[in-house]
Amino acid sequence: MSNLAKQIEILNKELSKQLPDEINELFAQSIKDLKDQKIEEKAMTVGMSLPPFSLMNSESQKIDSQQLLGQYDKVVLFFFRGSWCPYCNLELRAIQELLVNNQLDRVGILAISPQLTTYSKQLIAENNLAFELLFDQNNELAKKLGIAFTLQDYAQVAYSGLGIDLSSFNGNNSNELPIPAVFVVDKNAIITYSFVDSNYTSRIDIDLLLKQL
Predict the structure, then answer these.
(1) pTM of whole model > 0.70?
(2) Hey, is 27 helix, strand or coil?
(3) CA atoms of 135 and 172, how far apart (whole Å)
(4) Residue-level pLDDT at 24
């Protein structure tokens, strides 16, 4: 079991104890409903071409995919829900650990979410992240990749009850989020590896990802 998987296992146990049973049940139902939508089957996958994009980073600078693909042998795109998500935070720290422990000079690492740049800038500072966090406004890129969804009303109410205001984080009232996903892309913009799981508590095996780089 990877370090990230162990941390997720601990987090699952902690949240199960800390959150009211009704909230845990709503989150479990939310995951089940997303699984029933079979979003994974609709997402872009290996062999497909990544749509070109130009997204803003935490410093409000445009990052162009074509330019990135010219700079690196491979580019890895991590889609995460937001800094309010504890599972996303664990994954982002695992990515940072991956960078620290391995020579990945020829690999570009990008984390992408619908949250406003202000929150991403804060997230970078708090976790000493050495990779870009990009702002996918209104989940436009996530939609093109087939991994965007609208959070169920009952789940949105549950999040609000925990003090998580998605409209503030994302700057709109759509309640749309990306499925946590990872895409490895080569210099020709071809997806060579993908991980998509509508269960947001399930994250990529970092050791397995390293083998794809």
Answers:
(1) yes
(2) helix
(3) 13
(4) 92
C-beta neighbour count of 110 within 10 angstroms: 22
Q: What is the pLDDT of residues 115-151, one digit of tens each?
A: 999 999 999 999 999 999 999 999 999 999 999 999 9
CB count in 10 Å sphere of residue 71 = 10
Place of tokens 């020709």: 188
Q: Of 137, 121, 123, which Cα lies nearest the Cα of 172?
A: 137
Q: What is the pLDDT of residues 159-174, one digit of tens each?
A: 999 999 999 999 999 9
Catalogue the E-assigned strands of 66-143. Answer: 74-79, 107-113, 132-135
| pLDDT bracket for residue 102 (50, 70, 90) | confident
Distance (Å, rounded) from C-alpha 52 to C-alpha 137?
15
Residue 4 · residue 94 · CB < 8 Å = yes
- HSE at residue 97, side-chain half, CA atoms within 13 A, is 12
Joined tokens for residue 46: 């290996």
CA triplet 182, 49, 191: central angle to 5 degrees? 35
